Amino acid sequence: MPGLVEQWDAIVAAQPSDWSSLYLELRLRDAAQSEECALVICPLNPWHDDSWRSGVFHFRAARSFGYGAAAELCRKRLGTLDGLGIVASLKLERRATDVRPVATQGVV
To answer: Which of 18, 29, 42, 62 lies 20 to 30 Å from 101 when distance is taken between CA atoms?
Structure first.
């Protein structure tokens, strides 16, 4: 199985140039590594379905602005998991494209 950084790079490379955010699933091969994984990816603000010890985490990445961890931070944290020898699969669940901030705050 390719490393997480390699999987991340392939997912990002397959996106259109106007992608704004990605919703991803990280599924550990060994759920016993959930605690260690959770500590490493906590800056990505991950969530889980039933139990965080299931070995399945979800997180959101943002390309340049908006809700989600910065894409560079996601890649770095996944690289840390690779360095620890944690084997997992990364899957794109959905993406948002061409999202632009709206100036609705304050006096116009």
So the answer is: 42
